[in-house]
Structures are given as C-alpha cells and as structure tokens.
Design a protein that fits this description.
Blueprint: E1 2-6, H1 9-12, H2 16-28, E2 33-36, H3 51-59, E3 66-72, H4 78-91, E4 98-101, H5 106-111, H6 119-135, E5 139-142, E6 147-151, E7 164-167, H7 174-183, E8 186-189, H8 196-209, E9 218-224, E10 242-246, H9 254-267
Parallel strand pairs: 1-2, 1-10, 2-3, 3-4, 4-7, 7-8, 8-9, 9-10
Antiparallel strand pairs: 5-6
C-alpha cells in the first residue's frame, strides 16, 4: 500500500513557507504522495489555492513525492487542462496523478460559463481527449464539446498518459461506477467500509466488460489522523491500494500540522 498525506492548504492558507516546509517534510518522512482539492469560487467556504498552481510550487521544492491535484474537469477547458497538467508532469519529472470530478456546485459552473447539467457525460469525453493529447504528436478528435484537428501539445508529458483518478460522492451512482471501470486508473473511495465491496465489485465488472485488467484500477481512501476519529485510521486499509492521511479539521497551526504528520509517520511500519 502507498500512503500519502493531504497538503493542508486550507489551514496553512497564505503561509507559503509553511506549505513548502510541509511538502518537503512529507517527502523526507517517506509519504508517497501529496493531495490537494479543487475550489475555484464559492461562498464562505474558506481559503483554497488553485491546485495546479500550488502543485507547481511543490514540484520545485521536492524530488520524488507524487503530486495529486484535483480538478473539477467539466468546469474547465479540456485542452488548457491538458497543457497545464502536462507542464506540471514535465517540471516534476513525471510525478503527477490527476484527480478529476464533476462537482456539485452549480453557481461555480455558472461563474465559469460552463454547463452544469451535462457535466457527467462531458467529463467522459474530456478524459478521452486528455489521453489523446498526452500520448500523440498529432491529435484528431471530434467530440460533442471538443474538437481538435491536426494539433498537438509540445512538450508532451513524461508519463504518456498521465494517470487519471476519479472522485465522486460517497456512494457513486451506476453511471459513475461505469465511468471509473471503463476510463479511470483508480478512484477515491468516500464510502463506508461496509459499502465498499459492492461498489468495488461494480467497478471491476465494468472494467472486465471493456477488456481492461481490473487489477490495474487503484483505490484510495482519506482518513483523519487528528480529531475524534484519529484512532481509527489504521483499521481502514483493507482492500485499498492507496491511503491518504489528513491533519485537517482540528484547527492546527503550522507546527501542529508538522507534528501530527510526524506522529503518523512513526506508526506507518505497524500498518
């Protein structure tokens, strides 16, 4: 199992030196990856930096830790996302794993002049195009929303293609389970341990139906290492390929986030 940690940008806010220190320390402690969520514009939801930009910062101060930014894909321009993520992959020397979701905030879509109502089916088309743009020196793609004729990204990313993992609600609807099984390299698990086996079974069945190897689809859950449920995290690893620890939610300051991460790291050999 690969065990990473969420970069606590919501609570570190504009303390850029603290963000860089946390990233460097996570790498030094042996965590395999860093995650950051997406939020462009909301009402009273707290601070959150743009994920691809903050990961470019992190790429410059780390050497080996995997970078896992999330984007609300249908709210963004597909070709521009492809270029931004390809650039991040190049400057990090092939360390990117992209998390994508469709979100649930219609006002955010409206502010970005994107259609909220077709976000699911558009996301599926976008994933197809992202892979084409990351793998080919000439792309000819005719979709319902995106059209690329005889063009290419330059430079291409180090990874061809960059892994795409899907995030969804705690219990994904059948269409999203299908999307994961048919298109994703993995998915972010938000359901309970009791709900997990059925959802996983559906995902793997979809993968097999499309000729994919179901064993290649990864699973990752996030668990808190602070707060009232901090003692539970070591017991939530069954059936997962990745785990992401969180020091968020307890109102910690910079030094307390670093200490909580250090304490969790010392427990990793016992998992």
């Amino acid at each position: 199992m690969k065990i990473g940690i969420s970069l606590p940008v919501r609570e570190l806010q504009n303390d850029i030196e603290a963000i860089k220190t946390f990233a460097r320390e996570a790498e030094a402690l042996g965590f395999t990856h860093l995650r950051v969520p997406e939020q462009v514009i909301r009402t009273n939801s707290g601070p959150l930096h743009e994920p691809l930009t903050i990961m470019a910062l992190v790429a410059g101060v780390t050497q080996s830790i995997e970078l896992v930014p999330f984007v609300i894909l249908p709210a963004r321009q597909t070709v521009l996302v492809a270029k931004q993520v390809a650039t991040l992959d190049v400057i990090s020397n092939g360390r990117v794993r992209l998390g994508v979701g469709v979100g649930k905030n219609s006002e955010e879509y409206k502010s970005l002049k994107s259609d909220f109502n077709n976000r699911g089916i558009r996301c599926e088309e976008q994933i197809e195009l992202l892979k084409e743009l990351w793998m080919n020196e000439e792309v000819n793609f005719e979709g319902n929303w995106d059209r690329v004729q005889g063009l290419n990204l330059n430079p291409l990313p180090i990874q061809r293609p960059i892994p795409i993992w899907i995030a969804a609600s705690s219990v994904p609807i059948p269409r999203i389970r299908q999307r994961i099984g048919r298109q994703a390299d993995g998915w972010f698990v938000l359901c309970t341990p009791e709900e997990f086996p059925e959802i996983k079974s559906d995902v793997l069945r979809e993968a097999e139906m499309t000729g994919r190897d179901p064993n290649e689809i990864g699973t990752e859950a996030g668990v808190a290492v602070v707060g009232p449920r901090q003692a539970e995290w070591k017991h939530r690893v069954a059936g997962l390929t990745y785990l992401c620890l969180r020091t968020l939610g307890a109102g910690l300051n910079r030094d307390q986030h670093l200490e909580a991460m250090s304490v969790a790291a010392r427990q990793l050999p016992s998992i």
